[in-house]
Write a structure and sequence with these properties.
It contains 22 helices and 13 strands. With 522 residues, it is α+β, with helices and mostly antiparallel strands. The protein binds zinc ion (ZN) (2 copies). The site of one zinc ion has 8 residues, from loops.
Length: 522
């Protein structure tokens, strides 16, 4: 026998809390096995036919519908509503009988109120199958993942206006194997459509069906360029500025690596840390003793240093020669240096075992020996940022306004390393200026390409060959305000959506979620 609690309350208070019940007669409110059950019935009077809209009062029969609603006070709410089936009196109407619907409470074939359905739909769009089902369980709605997906696929697809400026980009359905095409409004970022592949004929067909598109922003992929030309040669094509910058960056990295020998020694000077002062102090002590006629062995004994160490100090006639930044290779300890540095600043005698334990908890996979050597070499305290081709290239590619003073100095030194590095630094800065679109950039671009041709920079040269091949679109990129940056954001969202369904979602499901998640929930 279920536990039933009769809840005495007046109808006015109830309608205040549950306004969706205003249009029906509430008969009883009980709590049954932890579920709030409202028993209600529709009122007498005419109801509009769901087929033709003509009102009718001719009752055929009555039956009870169980409608789930949003939980109240942490308890699921069910409305047991008696509704009528009525005859339609309109002879022209295809319906003989129809079931009455209560606005805000019931919909045909739905066992959830409109309010609850809105929640379920929003969860389905955001989390899809099983994650969505888990969240809804917390909200007192037990739905299977399959039901969630059904709800999701039933949500009508948004129909955005076709924009004049379209952004076109590909994204991986299965990296390296299957790709799809995303189309967005390049100005508002609104998602327009998702095509199941990146084939030329698919894109061409879509563009032919949507002649409103007059400008297409795309990356350098030759496929899209041809597809747009095939669809309509009068569509203006615009390469993506940031994609061009990305290609330039790649060429710069290769040039920098090719000149590694020219900049290798330009690393930042060693910090004036403890290690440097110890070195200077020891050098002074060793040379004082030697000047007073002590032998190497005697120095070693008095200063409590190894004989080889004393010999090393004795060999150098200036302490500063010994204080140079050693060129270390990257090790597994590097990522934890900041932690070690902070710990040793706090407690210079922190035991090795404790430090090892701490960084192991953070994911260090190296050995105790490696850590010990790292600490002995003074690499925790000293900041020997050994230069890599990547970091040098990054420095050259960074807007000088965003560089710290020391980075600026290093940038200048790198630009002076050799004539090719000088040319490279200048060309990068000149290219960066092209990224602000203006009409004069067409001339500046030609000038830039000529300067690259004149310099001895093979990788940059082949970059300009690519620019020439797509010249019209590249010029558009540097003279028009359009860009494809917003597809980047969409790509991030797509990755998230794919992971939520463990990459197993079918294309129609993924497409539906991509298009739906662009419109904000009401
Ligand atoms: Zn009708
Ligand atoms: Zn060089």
């Amino acid at each position: 026998m279920p536990v039933r609690t009769l809840v005495p309350c007046d109808v006015q208070t109830l309608i205040l809390l549950l306004p969706q019940l205003a249009a029906v007669d509430v008969e009883l409110v009980v709590v049954e096995d932890g579920v709030v059950v409202v028993t209600a019935a529709t009122r007498d009077g005419p109801a509009a036919c769901t087929g033709c809209g003509q009102p009718s009062q001719w009752v055929h029969s009555a039956y009870v519908r169980h409608v789930a609603d949003e939980a109240v006070g942490g308890r699921p709410l069910r409305i047991d509503l008696q509704v009528r089936r009525l005859y339609c009196q309109n002879p022209a109407c295809p319906k003989t009988t129809f079931a009455e619907q209560v606005s805000g409470l019931t919909r045909r074939y739905q066992r959830r109120t409109a309010a609850l359905q809105r929640v379920v739909d929003a969860v389905a769009v955001t989390l899809a199958g099983s994650a969505g089902a888990r969240l809804l369980l917390i909200l007192h709605q037990a739905l299977s993942w399959a039901t969630m997906l059904n709800c999701l696929m039933r949500i009508p697809e948004p129909r955005p206006a076709i924009p004049r400026v379209l952004g076109l980009d590909e994204f991986a359905l299965l990296k390296g194997h299957r790709y799809a095409t995303i189309m967005i409004d390049a100005q508002s970022g609104q998602r327009i459509d998702v095509l199941p592949d990146r084939r030329m004929d698919t894109v061409t067909a879509w563009l032919r069906q949507h002649p409103q598109v007059r400008v297409v922003c795309r990356d350098g992929a030759a496929g899209y360029a041809q597809a747009v030309t095939d669809a309509d040669p009068t569509i203006l094509q615009c390469a993506d500025r940031w994609h061009l910058w990305h290609l330039l960056a790649e060429a710069v990295r290769k040039e920098v690596a090719a000149h590694a020998a020219c900049w290798a020694g330009l690393g930042p000077p060693i910090r004036e840390g403890r290690r440097a002062s110890t070195t200077r102090e020891r050098w002074k002590q060793v040379h004082e003793l030697l000047d007073h006629g002590a032998g190497l062995l005697e120095c070693s004994r008095r200063l409590n240093l190894g004989l080889n160490t004393v010999k090393r100090y004795a060999r150098h006639d200036e302490p500063d020669k010994m204080v140079t930044a050693p060129q270390y290779r990257p090790t597994l300890v590097d990522p934890y240096r900041e932690h070690l540095r902070a710990r040793r600043a706090q407690d210079p005698a922190a035991p090795l075992a404790a430090l090892l334990r701490e960084i192991k908890e953070q994911g260090y996979t190296g050995s105790a020996n490696l850590l010990a050597r790292y600490i002995c070499q003074g690499r925790v305290e000293a900041d020997h940022a050994t230069l890599s081709a990547k970091s040098v290239a990054r420095l050259l590619l960074t807007n000088p306004d965003h560089l710290r003073k020391d980075q600026c100095d290093l940038h200048d030194k790198l630009a002076d390393a050799c004539s090719e590095m000088t040319a490279l630094a200048e060309l990068v800065a000149a290219f960066a200026n092209l990224l602000t679109p203006e009409a004069s950039n067409t001339v500046k671009l030609s000038d830039w390409i000529n300067r690259v041709r004149a310099a001895d920079l093979p990788f940059l040269n082949s970059f300009t060959t690519g620019l020439q091949r797509d010249r019209a679109a590249v010029e558009a990129a540097f003279t028009m305000p359009y860009h494809n940056g917003r597809t980047e954001g969409v790509n991030g969202l797509i990755k998230l959506l794919k992971r939520q369904t463990y990459g197993r979602a079918s294309f129609p499901l993924l497409r539906h979620r991509i298009l739906l998640s662009s419109s904000n929930p009401q």
